[in-house]
Amino acid sequence: MAPLQQKLPFSYLLILCLATVVSSHNRPFTVPSVTRLTDSFPTVPVDQAFSKAFGASSVQFLSNGSTATLALDKVSGSGLVSQRRYNYGFFSAAIKLPSGLSPGVVVAFYLSNADKFPHNHDEIDIEILGHDKRNDWVIQTNVYANGSVSTGREEKFYFWFDPTQQYHLYSILWNSYHTVFLVDNIPVREFIHSNTYPSVYPSKPMSVYATIWDGSEWATHGGKYPVNYKYAPFVASFAQVKLSGCISDPTAPVSACAKVNPSAQDPINGPEFTKLSQQQVAAMDWARRKLMFYSYCNDRPRFKVMPPECH
Q1: Which positions are annotated as active-site residues?
Q2: Sequence-separated (6 or more) residues with CB below 8 Å from residue 150
Q3: What confidence tens digit (pLDDT) does each residue in 72-83 have?
Q4: Percent of the chain predicted with pLDDT > 90
Q5: What is the pLDDT of residue 157?
Q6: Which of 125, 217, 246, 248 could form a disulfide with 85 if both were Cys (CB 3.0 to 4.6 A apart)?
Q7: Does pLDDT of 52 surpass 80?
Q8: Distance between CA atoms of 269 and 104, rounded to whole angstroms?
Q9: Measuring CA to CA, which residue among 223, 9, 248 is closest to residue 108?
């Protein structure tokens, strides 16, 4: 496991861009309407929900703690880690990406327990990969479980907007039924528990991280374009943070959350969140048809036998 300030997806040597990245937010899109799932959860102050994980001098809390800026410079990146671990939940942040050229820069909002389980960790990633002169930022989603670092399940998408101009919402819904990745409340990916092997579905308590770091070795065109520190510092802003879910209590013999039987006291693992609505399914189909340019499910050279959820 790389040091936290140098956190790299373990599959970076396995994945190269399989398509030429072109500008997407300049193309006209009719964006589908969806229910604003983020409105169902309370916003928490960033400075109360998170601690500085690394690069402390490059982290600033602004607007009475409701916003945080994270910077990457020649010295290091920077990051935050949630003060609590979660058995599952809904996690979201409004993020504004660095403006200007940013090849090799990675801005991430993700869940992980690599600090607690270094040899069999779980991870759910939203990683936003920097751009060069010809190519826009892209979003990469990924899922690991039980240390399955050689079988990461990456999917990559173009944006339908310029993510540097204003804040946009990036969200993860994770429960015992499925893991859903959302951008501005539009589902872009659903990873269903029952469709895959139990051993590859994240199940152990995880912390939430917000980071910016140097991914020169892999992030932009497989490492072709490294970070150019002439344009540093690279600053990402995080706001409107929502961390709602089952808080893990390591001192309790049994979890206080209903992990199997849905109940009114446990809504994120309850009936309302067991599957996507028809409206959400239609929106996800739109995103995947229009904007997805890489899926591990289509990577035949990499997977001689396709994972079960790809069938």
Answers
A1: 123, 127
A2: 10, 11, 14
A3: 999 999 999 999
A4: 69
A5: 97
A6: 248
A7: yes
A8: 37
A9: 9
Please tell me whether the overall predicted TM-score, pTM, comes out greater than 0.85 for this model.
yes
* Contact between residue 36 and residue 94 where contact means Cβ atoms under 8 Å apart: no
Cα gap 249→262, rounded to integer Å? 19
Is 50 exceeded by the pLDDT of residue 107? yes
Which secondary-structure segment (H or E) carries 3?
Answer: none
Mean pLDDT in residue range 214-230: 83
Query: Cβ–Cβ contacts within 10 Å for residue 271, how many?
Result: 11
How many Å apart are CA 269 and CA 110, to the nearest integer? 19
Q: Count CB neighbours of 1 within 10 A.
A: 16
β-strands 105-112, 186-192 pairing: unpaired
Q: Which of 114, 91, 279 minimizes the C-alpha distance to 181?
A: 91
Residues 300-309: contacts with CB within 8 Å, 24+ apart? 302/14, 307/151, 307/153, 307/196, 307/200, 308/195, 308/196, 308/197, 309/191, 309/192, 309/195, 309/196
175's tokens: 């429960």
| β-pair type (155-158, 67-72) | unpaired
Calpha distance 129→114 (Å, rounded)? 21
The answer to whether the CB of 58 falls within 8 A of the CB of 8 is no
* Each residue's pLDDT tens digit, 227-276: 999 999 999 999 999 999 999 987 776 666 754 444 444 568 888 899 99
* Closest residue by Cα to residue 259 from 270, 251, 273: 270
CB atoms < 10 A from the CB of 28, how many?
6
